[in-house]
Amino acid sequence: MSPDIGGQAGPRETVMAPLAGWATPLSELPDPVFAGLVLGDGVAIDPVDQVLRAPCDGTITMLHRAHHALTLRTAAGADILMHIGLDTVELNGVGFTPHVAAGQQVRQGDALISFDAASIAGRVKSLLSPVIVTAGDRTFTVANRSQGREVKTGEAIFTIAPDSAAPEAGWTTAPASAEVTRDVVLRIPTGLHARPAGLISAAARGFQADTAVAFRSSRANARSSVSLMGLGAQAGDTVTLIASGADAEPALDAIAALLSEGHGFEAAEPAPHPAPVAATPKAEPSPPFDPGTEQVLSGVAAVPGRAVGTAFPLHTDRVDVAEYGAEPAVEHDTLHRALAAAQAALQAEIGRAPAGSPQAEILGAHLAFVEDPDLVGAADATIAAGKSAGFAWSGAIDRQIDILRGLGIDRMAERTDDLRDVGRRVLQAISGKAQEAVVLPPRAVLLADDLLPSQFAALPSDGIAGIALARGGRTSHVVIMAASLGIPTLVAVGPGLARVPEGAPVILDAEAGTLRAFPEAETLARTEASVTAARERAATQLHAAAADCRLVDGTRIEVAANLGGEADIPEALARGAEGCGLLRSEFLFLDRVTAPSEDVQFATYQRIAEGLQGRPLIIRTLDAGADKPLPYLDLPPEENPALGLRGVRVGLWRPELLRAQFRAILRVQPAGQCRIMLPMIALLEEIRAARALFDEVRAELGHTAPVQLGIMVEVPSAALMAATLAAEADFFSIGSNDLTQYTLAMDRGNPLLARQMDGLHPAILRLIATTCDGARRHKRWVGVCGGIASLPRAAAVLVGLGVTELSATASAIPAVKALLRTLSTQDCARVARRALQLDSAEAVHRLLGETWPEV
Ligand code: PEP
Ligand code: MG
What we know:
This protein has 855 residues and is α/β, with parallel strands linked by helices. The protein contains 28 helices and 35 strands. The strands form six sheets. Strands 10-6-7-8-12-4-3-14 form an eight-stranded antiparallel β-sheet, with no helix packed on it. Strands 20-27-26-22-23-24-25-21 form an eight-stranded mixed β-sheet. Helix 9 packs across helix 10 (389-406), helix 19 crosses helix 20 (684-701) and helix 27 (825-836) runs antiparallel to helix 28 (841-851).
């Protein structure tokens, strides 16, 4: 290519065909993003050869990880994107062989990517390959296009020249003041996905400085959440922060803090599951099911529970958009009015959602999209090129969806729902059609191919008995929202779901993972009766749950909740938790690349203490190892990790971890609200060593208020030695899950042993009785925080053995309290004595079933 000066503001460059084939105008591409020039201007080539070659001299600035596209920067600074075929990102690199890497200098004609045209052609929409000058820091005019004819590789296809207009103001311009940069290791376990990106972009917008985040060969405007997500940066990656302007340093501090500390992102994000997604239902409609025959469809249980109700299929109406509209100024105005309307609606919905709830967080991420400068900027640019507001907006959204899908990261792909949702919301506002209010039948079981968060949020949640989705994953945002409302949900039911007609009687069983349409009358009546009875019972129990729990003789039993993090507090309090009997502090340590700092821990514990509004909070120190591995601890390889370095042993092996955690807990105000519990104590010397460290930390902090330091009893030796340990521990809390595992020598995670791994086995009950006897000698209280505390009848037996505190899963608290309130200490003790004499867990269950049949 030869630069020349020809009446433009800078040197004109000539771009040669990187492929031989038919040169086609971009406007003819079957892809609104390329056809709408959203990404830039140029020409497409329908290739007849299989090697993409450099269209001019330059530097490779980006090679997409799917190897189907790359960009090359010319001497004048234009970025030329070459994209082999359409939708080829979905091939994930299959059929492409790159010959270059990002950063490499190339000469015109050098081979860049080879591809197997025959195999690719059958699997994608088109092999038409756009060659475009991307809209970037500087704008270039494309001229002298060769199109509508055959071109050979190396033949000129267009010229480019930089525009004379001054570059736009903003982060993309050359910095007015010196740039400051900082390398930061990304600690957000889930990577830069929607929510953290939204928070970071919001923080960046709070500063005047131009801020950017660079990762590998990409650089994203920090004010743009979609650009940040497009970086594809994952936990452990080092990104470079760049800022310029008066408040560059504080801006970097703020962004660095968000990137490097996680700040609760991890708590809000569900643990990754393999997200099952059923095949997309076929377009051709299958006939509805025959009302005379019961049909059973299988799905994946996403939110447990059962529902009997009426099928209510919900369809997502397409909002059609015309490509062309009025004058650009009018379309611009239309888009920005729609964005403002969407923004106002989202703010109102966020205001209505409980603070800190999943709904509020998800809607907050949507708000960040609506305000996203890159998304809005891309749409504005398309409008300026003569397209309608709706066309421009949907093109901008689709492009971002492609980018997220192209990252090949499941979690990111799942989050494209949020973009689709925001896209739809704004399109609806552009169309001026209000979303029709949906009138649900009583006990509606929603059936949908997939459901978007805003569609769900717009429905009256109290009218929804259940949800079944043909597609969807267990970690989708709709599932998170349904779980927070306790609505039984099945996902991945498959295309058969579309055959369930509106009004069909259905039984959704998210325990068994089935949806029955037109069930037999007898099954329907039986299930209906049991679901109704359970619901009525639950409502009565919930009504009374807030009050303290006392037995009929006045004995006080504290019923607290197990918490896995801050997000669990509202549910726990709503269900009558009298405090937290087990905060599994692992949530702060898992899915990270280093341990959280003392300050991060302190801030989190303080928020949890405040969230509990003065109620007691028992924080269990880190229980890592075995089934809760933390790679950054570098635990030595062990043949049998369940019997190796785990629980308190890790804290004693790495005392700096335990020390930081003690310090963080002791700093929480008011002093005394928090108690501390050590996991997996097996030996007396472990308590002594931990207490010595604890006393040291207290002395360092000058902490004088009394703080209880208790232990978990989850190893048989601790139960058998309880009388000795009680002299040194302020309280016991029985971890029946591990106590069962270690007593029965059955791996708690082994599905083959799940049925026998029963905490009501008399061997476990005897160890609990021994623990209570030992504690009594030193006037220590005993609680239970393992799974059996959540079973009402088992809770009664535990009380009968001498337990006075139960820490259960929040949903079980109302039922546990309800049963205990009907019993006396004598009643409980009598049944416990009989249970201790039985020979198997089954026999204990039988006894309890016979004693309290109504529960
Ligand atoms: C237990 O073992 O019973 C317990 C409560 O601890 P975790 O389940 O967290 O191991
Ligand atoms: Mg345990």
